[in-house]
Automatic annotation (TrEMBL):
SUPFAM superfamilies in the record: Composite domain of metallo-dependent hydrolases, Metallo-dependent hydrolases
Protein's UniProt keywords contain Hydrolase: yes
Keyword Hydrolase attached: yes
Protein species of origin: Nocardia panacis
Name the UniProt record assigns to this protein: Amidohydrolase family protein
Pfam families registered for this protein in UniProt: Amidohydro_1
Length: 410
């Protein structure tokens, strides 16, 4: 062990083995630096190890949220595009700190966050989950990432303006934009494949981007050993993306059996975001969602659980996502309770751990309590396998968060 590394032995733990869906009672976890070194009943401390007795509580892997907008400080995204970038960064720091406090130790940002925010967390300037960023989402003119109101003729193309999207039209513009985003170290690219709720001028049921534009983005991502995520609601938009090689579909509330077949054929991941529609319906207006956008929530709200159930029964790889905006971020953990209406507890937990880790290509490093993984650990009261809503109420049940071996909120 180097001088810089610390060591902690966690004792008297009820460790959730997520892949097996079983508990290991009376377990010990040796953490060296930022990594789990050993797990088992007979693990011994090193000479300099601190001892942490969790008194029989459940220990499970840090959670992964597969769809966040860490920089979405308001539900009025067109208005935020005019804000100061430093002001947005300061507010984003609070959003990320609160995500960590709910037990999310890794998040995949799906438009808005860039390398500066991710680096600031990694370098310890403020606490937060590990941020896997994709920069700005790529949108056609008038698409879901085009936040201009109807009378605004020119888009702001500055790379650091606090806008979640960049407008591209045509294959050449798409390739260049993808390369610029990948140049910053992005973990993925995001395409707006259909209309959405938060954008001002498009219909939810529209399809967006040409097939050639979608294929160009997939080619650029694959050339950089990255992948493409696609925002899509209708089966038509979903299927176009999957057939072109898009690896993850976000939202997907209006998918159908034809979509399920394509998910399975292409080994694609499905990332529903159910909590955001409930909160937009209930609180969106209070958090500055424009009335025209609020009216679009009904188009997708009632279909989300049906889509989730259809995908679950078919064995599609499903990942937990939330997609909350502004003051509604505080409801992040309620996604567990909503999904419990359809899925068994262990499948919901896997969607926020092992399946999500495969999706972001960090299998074995996050989402498990096992040697070689980052020491991202939660200590909770209660039994999440018996009642997954334990995870929906971190203010009551979450007792400690470790991210990369560092303790928070104990």
């Amino acid at each position: 062990m180097t001088d810089e590394q610390t060591s902690t032995l966690i004792t008297n733990a009820r460790v959730l083995d997520v892949p097996r869906g079983e508990y290991l009672d009376g377990a010990r976890i040796l953490v060296v630096g930022d990594t789990i070194a050993e797990v088992g009943p007979e693990v011994r401390a090193l000479s300099e190890s601190a001892i942490l007795d969790v008194e029989g509580r459940t220990v499970l892997p840090g959670l992964i949220d597969g769809h966040v907008h860490a920089t979405a400080c308001t539900a009025d995204l067109p208005a935020q595009a005019q804000w100061s970038p430093t002001y947005v960064a300061a507010r984003s720091a609070r959003i990320l700190r609160e995500m960590l406090g709910r037990g999310f130790t890794t998040v995949r940002d799906m438009a808005g966050a860039e390398y500066g925010l991710a680096d600031a967390v990694d370098e310890g300037y403020f606490p937060g989950p590990r941020v896997l960023f994709g920069g700005k989402a790529l949108s056609q003119t008038g698409g879901h990432g085009d936040m201009r109101h109807r009378g605004q003729l020119v888009a702001d193309t500055h790379p650091h303006c606090p806008d979640a999207g960049v407008v591209v039209d045509g294959v050449d513009q798409m390739r260049r934009a993808c390369r610029e985003i990948l140049r910053t170290g992005a973990h993925h690219l995001k395409l707006m494949l259909s209309g959405g709720v938060a954008s001002p001028t498009d219909r939810v049921d529209s399809t967006q981007l040409s097939l050639d534009e979608i294929r160009a983005a997939v080619e650029e991502a694959e050339a950089a050993n990255r992948y493409v995520a696609g925002h899509a609601y209708t089966a038509r938009a979903i299927n176009r993306g999957l057939e072109c090689g898009v690896r993850t579909i976000e939202h997907g509330n209006l998918l159908d059996e034809t979509s399920i077949e394509l998910f399975k054929r292409h080994s694609a991941f499905y990332v529903p975001t159910l909590v955001t529609y409930r909160m937009l319906a209930d609180e969106g207006l209070a958090y500055d969602l424009p009335a025209d956008n609020h009216r679009k929530v009904a188009d997708v709200l009632d279909h989300g659980l049906r889509a989730l159930e259809l995908a679950h029964r078919a064995g599609v790889d499903i990942v937990l996502g939330t997609d909350l905006l502004g003051g509604m971020h505080r409801h992040q953990a309620l996604e567990f309770a909503i999904r419990a209406e359809v899925q068994p507890a262990i499948d919901i937990i896997r969607s926020a751990t092992t399946v999500a880790a495969r999706m972001v290509e960090l299998e074995g490093r996050i989402g498990v309590v096992a040697p070689g993984a980052y020491a991202d650990l939660l200590v909770v009261d209660g039994d999440p396998l018996a009642d997954v809503t334990v995870l929906a109420h971190p203010e009551r049940y979450l007792k400690m968060v470790l991210k990369a071996g560092v303790r928070y909120f104990q």
